[in-house]
Amino acid sequence: MRNSIFIGALSSLSLTACVSANKQEAQNVSKPNIIFIMSDDHAYQAISAYGCGLNNTPNIDRIGKEGVIFTKGFVTNSICAPSRAVMLTGKHSFVNGKVDNLLPFDWEQDNFAKQLQKSGYQTAMIGKIHLNGLPQGFDYSNVLPGQGQYYNPDFIENGIKKQYHGYCTSITTDIAMDWLENKRDKNKPFLMLYHQKAPHRTWMPEKKYFDLFEDKQFTPPANFFDKYENRPVAAKHEMGIYKHMDLAYDLKMLDDEGEIKTRLRKNAQRMYERMDSTQKADWDAHYKPLIAEFKAKGLKGKELALWKYDRYMKDYLSTVQSVDDGVGELLDYLDKNNLTENTIVVYTSDQGFYLGEHGWFDKRFMYEESFRTPILMRYPKEIKAGAVVDKLIQNLDFAPTFLDYAGVDIPKDIQGESFRKLLNGESGEWRDAIYYTYYEYPGEHNVQRHYGIRTDRYKLIHFYYDSDTWELYDLDKDPSEMNNVYDEPSYKEVQKDMHEKLVALRAKYGDSDENDQKHLNRFLDAKHLKH
Ligand code: SGN
Ligand code: CA
C-alpha cells in the first residue's frame, strides 16, 4: 500500500514535470528563430529593392517582397564597430562606450544575444563583428579578426584562430550553413548573426563576378562634382573618389612595371600576396588588360575622375553580388527545412555608404547616404508581404525588437524601441526625431566630430572640436543636402524648433557636452595626442 502510494505520488510528480517540459517545448517552438544578416558598408543604393537601378539583388529583394522594406532606416553612428555595439546593446555609443573603431568594447555589458540565450535560444555569431575579444552571448562564434580579408581569410572559431582557403563571402555563408545544418540543437529556437565583410573596402570581387559589370558604363550622381559651398567641414573631407581613392589599392591598378606610384601601393601588394598562384592567375587575367588599357589612355582631370568612379562601381557592385548569393542560399535552406514561416530574417548594413554622392566613397557623415542604412525584414507568421514602412527607425531598435518577438522582457535601460508595433497594425505614438553622434576625429578620411538630429523633413548638425559649425537642411526641397540653410532668415523658426528638439533629445538619451569632452579625451589619450 505504502509502495503504491509512493509510486502514485512519483508518477504524478513526473507527469507534472512532463507537462511542463511539453509546455516549455511548445513555447520554444512557437518562439521565432532569428537570422540577422548584416553586411559591411552596403549602401541602400546598391540594393535593387530600393529602386536606384544600379544592380540586381534578387535574394535581398525577396526579403522585402515577402516581408517589409524600411525606407527610413538609420544608424546612430555611421562607422563599423560602434554600429555593431549599438545593434547588440540597444544603447547609443556614448552609453555602451564603443564610440569609435579605436576604443575597446566591453563585452561584459548586457546584449540581446545574452538575453535570448538565457531564455532558451541557441545563439551563433558568424563573420565580421569588429569588436575586440571573444563575443559573449553566443554558444558558437566564428568571426573574422578585425576587418577580415577577402581572400584566404583567417577566422577565430570559439576563440581559436585558423585560416580558410577561398573567398571570404562564400566561406562565411558555408560556415553559417554548416552551423544551421550540423551544429545547432534543432530542438531549440535559434538566433544567428550572419555578418559579411563585403562590400567593405577594397572591394575585391569573386572570380565568377569579375566580368559582371564590364559592359556597363556607370554615370555618377548629379552632385559628383560637388564644390561644398556653404559646407566648410565637408570641404575638408579625405574621401574623394578623384583625389583620395588609391589607383593601386582601391582600383587594382598594381602594374608590374611599378609606374603607377601611389600612397597605398604597398598595401595593394600585400593584399595581392595573400592569394595563391591559381587565384593570382585568375586575378591577373582579369585586371592586367585593364591596367594596360588604363595606362594607354593617360587620363587626367574630369576624365580620370569619371573613370575612377566607373571602376569603383564595377568592383563594389560585384562584391555585393556574392553577398546576395549567400542570402539566396540561406533563404533556400529555410524553405527546404520548413523554417520559413517561423523565422525572422533581417537584412541590414552596419551603415550606409557613398557611391559617388558629393564625389565620395566611405561614410561617417550624418548626410543621408551614410546615415541611412538598408533594412528589410521578413516574418511570414506576423508580417504581411509587401509592406513598406516610412517611419524613422534606427539600428538602436533591433535589440528591443528581437526581444519583443521572442517574448523576452525588454530591459529598462535599453534606449531603442521595438518596431514590432509598426508592423502589426497597432496604432500609437512613434518618435518624430532621431539622434546621431560621430567621434572618430582626428582620423582617417578627416570627418569632424559631430552630432545632430533628423526629423521627417529637417536635419540639424553640429560639428565641434576644432570647428564650431552648424548646418540645417530642408530634405523636402534639398534631398541631396547641397544647400545649408542654417543662416537663412526664412528658416529662422525651423532653426529654433530644431535646436529645441535637439536639446530635448540629448537630454532624453543622456548626452551632453561633458560626454563629448570625456570621449574626446579618451580618444586623444588612446592616440597619444595632446588634449
Ligand atoms: C579601414 C578603411 C577605411 C574605413 C575604415 C572604417 N581603410 O580603415 O577606408 O573608413 O576601415 O571602416 S583601409 O585602407 O583599411 O581599407 S569600417 O567599416 O570598419 O568602420
Ligand atoms: Ca562598415
Describe it for me?
This protein has 531 residues and is of the alpha/beta class. The protein is 35% helix and 15% strand. A ten-stranded mixed β-sheet has the order 7-6-5-4-8-1-9-10-2-11, sandwiched between helices. Strands 13-14-15-16 form a four-stranded antiparallel β-sheet, with helices on one face. α5 runs parallel beside α12 (398-405) and α6 packs parallel to α10 (301-336). The longest helix has 36 residues, at 301-336. The protein is globular and about 65 Å long. Residues 40-41, 80, 200, 350-351 line the site of calcium ion. 2-deoxy-6-O-sulfo-2-(sulfoamino)-alpha-D-glucopyranose is lined by residues 40-41, 79-80, 101, 130, 147, 200-202, 362, 444-445.
Topology:
Elements: H1 2-30, E1 33-39, H2 58-65, E2 68-70, E3 73-74, H3 80-89, H4 93-96, H5 112-118, E4 122-128, E5 140-144, E6 154-157, E7 160-163, H6 168-183, E8 190-195, H7 232-235, H8 265-273, H9 277-297, H10 301-336, E9 343-349, H11 368-371, E10 375-378, E11 387-389, E12 393-394, H12 398-405, E13 433-438, E14 450-455, E15 458-463, E16 469-474, H13 492-509, H14 513-526
Parallel strand pairs: 1-8, 1-9, 2-11, 3-12, 4-5, 4-8
Antiparallel strand pairs: 2-10, 5-6, 6-7, 9-10, 13-14, 14-15, 15-16
Helix pairs in contact: 5-12, 6-10
